[in-house]
Amino acid sequence: MAVSALLRTGAVVVAPGGAARCHVLIRNNSAVVDQFVFTVRGAPADWTEIKPAVANLMPRQEVSVELTFRPPRSHEVPAGEHPFALRIASREDPAGSVVQEGVVTVEPFTEVAAGVVPETSTARRIGRHTLALDNLGNHPVKVEVGAVDKDERLTFRRKPARLELPLGHTTFARVDARPRKYFWKGENVPLPFKIVVAVPDAQEIELDARLDQKALIPRRVFWLVSILFGLLMVLVIIVTLLLRQQPVSIAGPSPERPSSSAATTTTTGSAAPTTASSAPSSAPGPSRVAGGGGPSVSAPTGGRAVTGRFRIETRAYPNVGGGPQLFSYVVPAGARYRVLSVVLRNPAADTGQLQIRHGSVVVGTVDLAVINRDGNDELTFVPDDPPLVRPGERITLAVVCTNRRDPCTPTGDFTVALVR
Protein backbone atom coordinates (compact mmCIF):
# COMPACT_ATOMS: atom_id res chain seq x y z
CA MET A 1 0.00 0.00 0.00
CA ALA A 2 1.42 3.39 -1.06
CA VAL A 3 0.11 5.34 1.92
CA SER A 4 -0.92 4.82 5.54
CA ALA A 5 -3.02 7.15 7.72
CA LEU A 6 -3.66 7.45 11.45
CA LEU A 7 -6.54 9.55 12.85
CA ARG A 8 -5.30 10.71 16.22
CA THR A 9 -8.74 11.78 17.52
CA GLY A 10 -11.72 9.73 16.38
CA ALA A 11 -14.43 11.83 18.09
CA VAL A 12 -14.59 15.64 17.99
CA VAL A 13 -17.08 17.88 19.85
CA VAL A 14 -17.78 21.38 18.50
CA ALA A 15 -20.22 24.17 19.38
CA PRO A 16 -22.31 25.77 16.58
CA GLY A 17 -20.55 28.88 15.37
CA GLY A 18 -17.27 27.70 16.95
CA ALA A 19 -14.37 25.57 15.75
CA ALA A 20 -12.75 22.25 16.69
CA ARG A 21 -9.73 20.48 15.21
CA CYS A 22 -8.31 17.00 14.78
CA HIS A 23 -5.14 15.70 13.07
CA VAL A 24 -4.40 12.80 10.75
CA LEU A 25 -0.81 11.48 10.34
CA ILE A 26 -0.07 10.58 6.69
CA ARG A 27 2.96 8.43 5.68
CA ASN A 28 4.33 7.64 2.22
CA ASN A 29 5.16 3.91 2.29
CA SER A 30 6.25 3.70 -1.35
CA ALA A 31 9.78 3.94 -2.75
CA VAL A 32 9.01 6.93 -4.98
CA VAL A 33 8.00 10.54 -4.48
CA ASP A 34 4.22 10.69 -4.43
CA GLN A 35 1.52 13.39 -4.28
CA PHE A 36 -1.49 12.91 -2.00
CA VAL A 37 -4.85 14.76 -2.18
CA PHE A 38 -7.05 14.97 0.93
CA THR A 39 -10.86 15.30 0.78
CA VAL A 40 -13.61 15.02 3.39
CA ARG A 41 -16.78 13.05 2.69
CA GLY A 42 -20.09 13.15 4.57
CA ALA A 43 -22.31 15.90 5.98
CA PRO A 44 -19.44 17.83 7.66
CA ALA A 45 -17.72 18.35 4.29
CA ASP A 46 -19.49 21.71 3.76
CA TRP A 47 -18.07 23.15 6.97
CA THR A 48 -14.69 21.42 7.24
CA GLU A 49 -11.34 23.00 6.33
CA ILE A 50 -8.28 20.85 5.41
CA LYS A 51 -4.67 22.03 5.84
CA PRO A 52 -2.86 21.13 3.70
CA ALA A 53 -5.25 19.91 1.02
CA VAL A 54 -2.39 18.50 -1.09
CA ALA A 55 1.01 17.14 0.04
CA ASN A 56 4.10 15.89 -1.86
CA LEU A 57 5.97 13.30 0.22
CA MET A 58 9.36 11.68 -0.22
CA PRO A 59 9.62 7.94 0.43
CA ARG A 60 9.06 7.16 4.14
CA GLN A 61 8.16 10.83 4.78
CA GLU A 62 5.24 11.82 7.04
CA VAL A 63 2.92 14.84 7.21
CA SER A 64 0.22 15.88 9.73
CA VAL A 65 -3.06 17.00 8.13
CA GLU A 66 -5.27 19.28 10.24
CA LEU A 67 -9.09 19.13 9.94
CA THR A 68 -10.94 22.19 11.28
CA PHE A 69 -14.71 21.81 11.81
CA ARG A 70 -16.75 25.07 11.76
CA PRO A 71 -20.49 24.24 11.84
CA PRO A 72 -22.71 27.34 11.35
CA ARG A 73 -25.04 28.47 14.11
CA SER A 74 -28.15 27.48 12.19
CA HIS A 75 -31.01 25.02 12.20
CA GLU A 76 -29.55 23.57 8.98
CA VAL A 77 -26.92 21.70 11.04
CA PRO A 78 -28.85 19.61 13.61
CA ALA A 79 -27.34 18.83 16.97
CA GLY A 80 -25.84 15.37 17.43
CA GLU A 81 -23.28 13.10 15.79
CA HIS A 82 -22.17 13.62 12.18
CA PRO A 83 -19.92 10.85 10.75
CA PHE A 84 -17.19 11.90 8.31
CA ALA A 85 -14.42 10.25 6.30
CA LEU A 86 -11.03 11.60 5.19
CA ARG A 87 -9.97 10.15 1.83
CA ILE A 88 -6.24 10.16 1.00
CA ALA A 89 -5.79 9.70 -2.76
CA SER A 90 -2.36 8.78 -4.20
CA ARG A 91 -1.39 10.08 -7.62
CA GLU A 92 1.16 7.32 -8.27
CA ASP A 93 -0.95 4.48 -6.90
CA PRO A 94 -4.71 5.36 -7.16
CA ALA A 95 -5.69 1.86 -6.11
CA GLY A 96 -3.70 2.29 -2.91
CA SER A 97 -5.79 5.22 -1.60
CA VAL A 98 -7.05 4.92 1.98
CA VAL A 99 -9.97 6.35 4.03
CA GLN A 100 -9.98 7.32 7.70
CA GLU A 101 -13.39 7.64 9.42
CA GLY A 102 -14.41 9.68 12.45
CA VAL A 103 -17.36 11.38 14.15
CA VAL A 104 -17.89 15.07 14.92
CA THR A 105 -20.55 15.89 17.51
CA VAL A 106 -22.36 19.24 17.22
CA GLU A 107 -23.54 20.61 20.54
CA PRO A 108 -27.18 21.82 20.83
CA PHE A 109 -28.17 25.46 21.09
CA THR A 110 -31.61 27.02 21.64
CA GLU A 111 -32.94 30.09 19.87
CA VAL A 112 -36.63 30.95 19.45
CA ALA A 113 -38.09 34.03 17.74
CA ALA A 114 -41.70 35.13 18.34
CA GLY A 115 -44.17 37.69 17.01
CA VAL A 116 -47.84 38.51 17.68
CA VAL A 117 -50.42 39.52 15.07
CA PRO A 118 -52.21 41.79 15.62
CA GLU A 119 -50.53 43.61 18.46
CA THR A 120 -53.77 45.52 19.13
CA SER A 121 -57.18 43.92 18.69
CA THR A 122 -60.55 45.70 18.92
CA ALA A 123 -63.56 43.76 20.18
CA ARG A 124 -66.54 43.87 22.53
CA ARG A 125 -66.11 40.44 24.09
CA ILE A 126 -63.01 38.57 22.85
CA GLY A 127 -59.77 39.90 21.36
CA ARG A 128 -58.04 37.31 19.19
CA HIS A 129 -54.25 37.35 18.72
CA THR A 130 -52.07 34.94 16.70
CA LEU A 131 -48.62 34.05 18.02
CA ALA A 132 -45.95 32.99 15.47
CA LEU A 133 -42.97 31.02 16.83
CA ASP A 134 -39.80 30.24 14.82
CA ASN A 135 -37.32 27.62 16.03
CA LEU A 136 -33.94 29.00 14.94
CA GLY A 137 -31.96 26.50 17.06
CA ASN A 138 -30.54 23.15 15.99
CA HIS A 139 -32.84 20.82 17.91
CA PRO A 140 -36.61 20.55 18.53
CA VAL A 141 -37.77 22.47 21.59
CA LYS A 142 -40.96 22.47 23.67
CA VAL A 143 -42.32 25.84 24.79
CA GLU A 144 -45.20 27.02 26.95
CA VAL A 145 -47.39 30.00 26.06
CA GLY A 146 -48.83 32.23 28.76
CA ALA A 147 -50.32 35.71 29.18
CA VAL A 148 -50.01 38.24 31.99
CA ASP A 149 -52.34 41.15 32.84
CA LYS A 150 -50.92 43.10 35.76
CA ASP A 151 -54.24 44.92 36.33
CA GLU A 152 -56.20 41.63 36.30
CA ARG A 153 -58.86 43.03 34.01
CA LEU A 154 -58.58 40.20 31.47
CA THR A 155 -58.86 36.43 31.31
CA PHE A 156 -56.96 34.43 28.70
CA ARG A 157 -57.39 31.29 26.64
CA ARG A 158 -54.40 29.71 24.85
CA LYS A 159 -54.75 27.31 21.93
CA PRO A 160 -52.53 25.35 22.51
CA ALA A 161 -50.81 26.23 25.77
CA ARG A 162 -47.85 23.89 25.12
CA LEU A 163 -46.37 23.05 21.76
CA GLU A 164 -43.24 21.56 20.20
CA LEU A 165 -41.30 23.60 17.65
CA PRO A 166 -39.64 21.55 14.88
CA LEU A 167 -36.43 22.69 13.23
CA GLY A 168 -36.69 25.47 10.68
CA HIS A 169 -40.49 25.80 10.82
CA THR A 170 -42.98 28.42 11.97
CA THR A 171 -45.58 27.23 14.48
CA PHE A 172 -48.70 29.20 15.35
CA ALA A 173 -50.74 29.47 18.55
CA ARG A 174 -53.76 31.62 19.42
CA VAL A 175 -54.22 33.75 22.50
CA ASP A 176 -57.76 35.02 23.22
CA ALA A 177 -58.20 37.90 25.68
CA ARG A 178 -61.63 38.34 27.31
CA PRO A 179 -62.54 41.33 29.55
CA ARG A 180 -63.76 40.56 33.06
CA LYS A 181 -66.25 43.46 32.94
CA TYR A 182 -68.34 44.97 30.14
CA PHE A 183 -69.85 48.43 29.64
CA TRP A 184 -72.83 49.55 27.60
CA LYS A 185 -71.63 52.78 25.96
CA GLY A 186 -68.68 55.13 25.76
CA GLU A 187 -65.20 55.30 24.28
CA ASN A 188 -62.98 52.26 23.73
CA VAL A 189 -61.02 51.15 26.82
CA PRO A 190 -57.39 50.04 26.23
CA LEU A 191 -56.44 46.87 28.12
CA PRO A 192 -52.69 46.15 27.70
CA PHE A 193 -51.17 42.76 28.52
CA LYS A 194 -48.09 40.66 27.81
CA ILE A 195 -47.76 37.31 26.03
CA VAL A 196 -45.00 35.23 27.65
CA VAL A 197 -43.25 32.31 25.94
CA ALA A 198 -41.27 30.05 28.30
CA VAL A 199 -38.33 28.41 26.49
CA PRO A 200 -36.21 25.72 28.24
CA ASP A 201 -32.56 26.70 28.79
CA ALA A 202 -33.24 30.19 27.44
CA GLN A 203 -34.65 33.51 28.56
CA GLU A 204 -38.42 34.02 28.48
CA ILE A 205 -39.83 35.92 25.51
CA GLU A 206 -42.25 38.75 26.36
CA LEU A 207 -44.44 40.37 23.71
CA ASP A 208 -46.59 43.46 24.30
CA ALA A 209 -50.21 43.25 23.13
CA ARG A 210 -53.43 45.13 23.78
CA LEU A 211 -57.19 44.73 23.60
CA ASP A 212 -59.22 47.87 22.88
CA GLN A 213 -62.55 46.97 24.45
CA LYS A 214 -65.61 48.41 22.70
CA ALA A 215 -68.97 49.22 24.28
CA LEU A 216 -71.68 46.57 24.00
CA ILE A 217 -74.00 48.99 22.18
CA PRO A 218 -72.36 50.71 19.20
CA ARG A 219 -72.53 54.48 18.84
CA ARG A 220 -74.53 54.22 15.65
CA VAL A 221 -77.38 52.60 17.61
CA PHE A 222 -77.71 55.72 19.79
CA TRP A 223 -77.52 57.90 16.69
CA LEU A 224 -80.19 55.82 14.97
CA VAL A 225 -82.48 55.96 18.02
CA SER A 226 -82.00 59.74 18.22
CA ILE A 227 -82.79 60.16 14.52
CA LEU A 228 -85.89 57.95 14.76
CA PHE A 229 -87.08 59.81 17.84
CA GLY A 230 -86.60 63.14 16.04
CA LEU A 231 -88.52 61.90 12.99
CA LEU A 232 -91.30 60.64 15.25
CA MET A 233 -91.59 64.04 16.93
CA VAL A 234 -91.70 65.78 13.54
CA LEU A 235 -94.45 63.38 12.42
CA VAL A 236 -96.46 64.05 15.59
CA ILE A 237 -96.16 67.82 15.05
CA ILE A 238 -97.26 67.54 11.40
CA VAL A 239 -100.28 65.37 12.29
CA THR A 240 -101.23 67.78 15.11
CA LEU A 241 -101.11 70.77 12.75
CA LEU A 242 -103.23 68.97 10.16
CA LEU A 243 -105.86 68.06 12.75
CA ARG A 244 -106.00 71.67 13.97
CA GLN A 245 -106.53 72.97 10.45
CA GLN A 246 -109.35 70.53 9.68
CA PRO A 247 -111.37 69.86 12.86
CA VAL A 248 -113.86 67.02 12.73
CA SER A 249 -117.39 67.51 14.11
CA ILE A 250 -118.99 64.57 15.85
CA ALA A 251 -122.27 66.37 16.63
CA GLY A 252 -125.36 65.51 14.70
CA PRO A 253 -126.91 67.89 12.15
CA SER A 254 -128.68 70.97 13.58
CA PRO A 255 -132.39 71.25 12.73
CA GLU A 256 -132.10 75.06 12.58
CA ARG A 257 -129.33 75.04 9.91
CA PRO A 258 -129.87 71.99 7.76
CA SER A 259 -127.83 73.26 4.82
CA SER A 260 -124.86 74.14 7.09
CA SER A 261 -125.06 70.77 8.79
CA ALA A 262 -125.03 69.03 5.47
CA ALA A 263 -121.98 70.99 4.45
CA THR A 264 -120.29 70.12 7.71
CA THR A 265 -121.13 66.47 7.21
CA THR A 266 -119.74 66.56 3.70
CA THR A 267 -116.52 68.19 4.91
CA THR A 268 -116.18 65.66 7.72
CA GLY A 269 -116.66 62.76 5.37
CA SER A 270 -113.93 63.98 3.03
CA ALA A 271 -111.45 64.80 5.81
CA ALA A 272 -111.04 61.27 7.10
CA PRO A 273 -110.00 59.74 3.77
CA THR A 274 -107.61 62.63 3.13
CA THR A 275 -105.90 62.12 6.48
CA ALA A 276 -105.67 58.37 5.93
CA SER A 277 -104.23 58.79 2.43
CA SER A 278 -101.51 61.13 3.77
CA ALA A 279 -100.06 58.36 6.00
CA PRO A 280 -96.83 56.87 4.62
CA SER A 281 -97.04 53.44 3.02
CA SER A 282 -94.32 50.80 3.17
CA ALA A 283 -93.48 48.47 0.32
CA PRO A 284 -91.15 45.50 0.52
CA GLY A 285 -87.66 46.16 -0.75
CA PRO A 286 -85.67 44.01 -3.20
CA SER A 287 -84.65 40.54 -2.08
CA ARG A 288 -81.05 39.87 -0.93
CA VAL A 289 -79.46 36.45 -0.55
CA ALA A 290 -76.86 36.36 2.24
CA GLY A 291 -75.91 34.59 5.46
CA GLY A 292 -73.69 31.86 6.75
CA GLY A 293 -70.56 33.89 6.11
CA GLY A 294 -71.10 33.58 2.32
CA PRO A 295 -70.56 36.24 -0.32
CA SER A 296 -73.10 38.92 -1.14
CA VAL A 297 -75.20 37.57 -4.03
CA SER A 298 -77.16 39.61 -6.55
CA ALA A 299 -80.61 38.27 -7.42
CA PRO A 300 -82.62 39.30 -10.50
CA THR A 301 -86.41 39.33 -10.67
CA GLY A 302 -87.56 35.88 -9.71
CA GLY A 303 -85.25 35.55 -6.68
CA ARG A 304 -82.73 33.13 -8.16
CA ALA A 305 -79.09 34.02 -7.31
CA VAL A 306 -76.71 34.21 -10.31
CA THR A 307 -73.44 35.85 -9.27
CA GLY A 308 -71.81 36.84 -6.00
CA ARG A 309 -68.69 38.41 -4.58
CA PHE A 310 -66.48 38.01 -1.57
CA ARG A 311 -63.13 39.42 -0.47
CA ILE A 312 -60.02 37.87 1.07
CA GLU A 313 -57.75 40.29 2.93
CA THR A 314 -54.18 39.39 3.87
CA ARG A 315 -51.46 40.56 6.20
CA ALA A 316 -48.28 38.56 5.57
CA TYR A 317 -45.14 39.30 7.50
CA PRO A 318 -41.64 39.26 5.99
CA ASN A 319 -38.83 37.00 7.13
CA VAL A 320 -41.24 34.27 8.29
CA GLY A 321 -39.99 30.79 7.42
CA GLY A 322 -42.00 27.68 6.61
CA GLY A 323 -43.38 28.64 3.17
CA PRO A 324 -46.14 31.07 2.18
CA GLN A 325 -48.65 32.44 4.68
CA LEU A 326 -52.24 31.33 3.94
CA PHE A 327 -55.46 33.38 4.12
CA SER A 328 -58.62 31.42 3.27
CA TYR A 329 -62.33 31.72 2.65
CA VAL A 330 -64.49 28.65 3.39
CA VAL A 331 -67.58 28.11 1.22
CA PRO A 332 -70.68 27.85 3.45
CA ALA A 333 -73.09 24.96 3.39
CA GLY A 334 -75.84 24.84 0.79
CA ALA A 335 -74.10 26.39 -2.20
CA ARG A 336 -71.45 25.71 -4.83
CA TYR A 337 -69.46 28.50 -6.48
CA ARG A 338 -67.53 28.69 -9.72
CA VAL A 339 -64.78 31.32 -9.59
CA LEU A 340 -65.09 33.61 -12.63
CA SER A 341 -62.47 36.29 -11.94
CA VAL A 342 -60.34 37.83 -9.20
CA VAL A 343 -59.40 41.51 -8.85
CA LEU A 344 -56.03 41.58 -7.08
CA ARG A 345 -55.03 44.82 -5.35
CA ASN A 346 -51.63 45.84 -4.00
CA PRO A 347 -52.13 49.41 -2.66
CA ALA A 348 -48.89 49.45 -0.64
CA ALA A 349 -46.73 48.35 -3.62
CA ASP A 350 -45.49 45.33 -1.67
CA THR A 351 -42.96 42.91 -3.14
CA GLY A 352 -43.26 39.18 -3.17
CA GLN A 353 -45.46 36.50 -4.69
CA LEU A 354 -49.17 35.67 -4.44
CA GLN A 355 -50.87 32.39 -5.32
CA ILE A 356 -54.58 31.69 -5.76
CA ARG A 357 -55.35 28.18 -4.52
CA HIS A 358 -58.40 25.93 -4.56
CA GLY A 359 -57.59 23.58 -1.70
CA SER A 360 -54.12 22.26 -2.61
CA VAL A 361 -54.46 23.10 -6.33
CA VAL A 362 -52.72 26.28 -7.52
CA VAL A 363 -55.12 28.19 -9.80
CA GLY A 364 -52.65 30.99 -10.60
CA THR A 365 -49.46 32.70 -9.47
CA VAL A 366 -48.84 36.48 -9.63
CA ASP A 367 -45.77 38.55 -8.77
CA LEU A 368 -46.91 41.43 -6.52
CA ALA A 369 -44.69 43.86 -8.44
CA VAL A 370 -46.65 43.08 -11.65
CA ILE A 371 -49.84 44.49 -10.10
CA ASN A 372 -48.20 47.95 -9.82
CA ARG A 373 -46.27 47.81 -13.10
CA ASP A 374 -48.37 50.36 -15.05
CA GLY A 375 -49.01 52.74 -12.15
CA ASN A 376 -52.23 50.95 -11.24
CA ASP A 377 -52.64 49.12 -7.93
CA GLU A 378 -54.96 46.39 -9.20
CA LEU A 379 -54.91 43.48 -11.65
CA THR A 380 -57.80 41.34 -12.89
CA PHE A 381 -57.02 37.62 -13.02
CA VAL A 382 -59.31 35.31 -15.05
CA PRO A 383 -58.56 31.56 -14.60
CA ASP A 384 -58.28 29.46 -17.75
CA ASP A 385 -60.28 26.68 -16.10
CA PRO A 386 -62.64 28.29 -13.55
CA PRO A 387 -62.61 26.01 -10.46
CA LEU A 388 -65.83 24.69 -8.93
CA VAL A 389 -65.74 25.16 -5.13
CA ARG A 390 -68.05 23.02 -2.99
CA PRO A 391 -69.36 23.61 0.55
CA GLY A 392 -66.61 23.31 3.13
CA GLU A 393 -63.81 23.76 0.58
CA ARG A 394 -61.37 26.67 0.70
CA ILE A 395 -60.29 29.43 -1.64
CA THR A 396 -56.87 30.60 -0.42
CA LEU A 397 -54.47 33.48 -1.08
CA ALA A 398 -50.93 32.22 -0.35
CA VAL A 399 -48.54 35.14 0.13
CA VAL A 400 -44.74 35.16 0.25
CA CYS A 401 -43.70 38.62 1.48
CA THR A 402 -40.23 39.90 0.55
CA ASN A 403 -40.58 43.39 2.02
CA ARG A 404 -37.72 44.56 4.19
CA ARG A 405 -39.82 45.49 7.22
CA ASP A 406 -43.52 46.22 6.66
CA PRO A 407 -46.07 43.41 6.17
CA CYS A 408 -47.61 42.72 2.75
CA THR A 409 -51.34 43.51 2.51
CA PRO A 410 -52.66 42.47 -0.93
CA THR A 411 -56.37 41.72 -1.28
CA GLY A 412 -58.49 39.67 -3.67
CA ASP A 413 -62.09 40.47 -4.70
CA PHE A 414 -63.61 37.24 -6.09
CA THR A 415 -66.54 37.15 -8.52
CA VAL A 416 -68.31 33.78 -8.45
CA ALA A 417 -71.30 32.12 -10.10
CA LEU A 418 -73.76 30.17 -7.99
CA VAL A 419 -74.13 26.59 -9.32
CA ARG A 420 -77.31 24.72 -8.39
Task: Tally the beta strands.
Answer: 28
Helix content: 10-25%
Strand residue percentage: over 45%
Q: What is the structural class?
A: mainly beta
Q: What is the overall pLDDT average?
A: 83
Sum up the overall morphology in one term: elongated
Low-confidence stretches: 247-293, 299-303
Q: Count the DSSP helices.
A: 3
Largest pleated sheet:
6 strands, antiparallel
In whole angstroms, how far apart are the ends? 82 Å
Query: Over all CA atoms, what is the radius of gyration?
Result: 39 Å
Can you describe this structure?
There is one protein chain. The chain is mainly beta and 420 residues long. It is 12% helix and 45% strand. The protein contains three helices and 28 strands. Strands 19, 20, 22, 25, 26 and 28 form a six-stranded antiparallel sheet that branches. A hairpin with an 8-residue loop joins strand 19 (296-298) and strand 20. The longest helix is centred in the middle third of the chain and has 27 residues, at 219-245.
Overview features:
mainly beta; 5-stranded mixed sheet
List the SSEs and their pairings:
Elements: E1 3-7, E2 11-14, E3 20-28, E4 34-41, E5 48-51, E6 54-57, E7 62-69, E8 80-90, E9 98-106, E10 112-117, E11 120-123, E12 127-135, E13 141-148, E14 154-159, E15 162-165, E16 170-179, E17 189-198, E18 205-213, H1 219-245, H2 258-277, E19 296-298, E20 307-313, E21 325-330, E22 336-345, E23 352-358, E24 361-367, H3 368-371, E25 378-381, E26 388-389, E27 394-401, E28 411-419
Parallel strand pairs: 2-9, 11-18
Antiparallel strand pairs: 1-3, 3-7, 4-6, 4-8, 5-7, 8-9, 10-12, 12-16, 13-15, 13-17, 14-16, 17-18, 19-20, 20-28, 21-27, 22-25, 22-26, 22-28, 23-24, 23-27
